[in-house]
Amino acid sequence: MEITEFQKLMYDLYAHNDKRRGAAATTLWLVEEIGELAEAVRREDMENLREELADCFAWIGALANLFDIDLEEAFLEKYPLVCPTCGKNPCICTD
């Protein structure tokens, strides 16, 4: 699945709820999921880690849809197949 397809799926499934909820509340849901992701990382719980990564990705898609941002376009603009800091692939930055 391409990022654009994923974002369209999130729109079709959840945009009506996301619009009703609004950007602030949607962001809070994302932050909650990031907390759950951090907990899964801390516990090294691979099964839960997969689930929480998927949840975070879904909420990011919801926010992008609320602001009418094409994630694939934004990502490639920021990360044009090279590191945005050093301009290399792979990155040679020390941090």
From TrEMBL:
InterPro entries in UniProt: MazG-like_dom
A Pfam match: MazG
Domain of life: Archaea
Domain (NTP pyrophosphohydrolase MazG-like) ranges: 25-86
UniProt name for this protein: NTP pyrophosphohydrolase MazG-like domain-containing protein
Natural source organism: Methanococcoides methylutens MM1
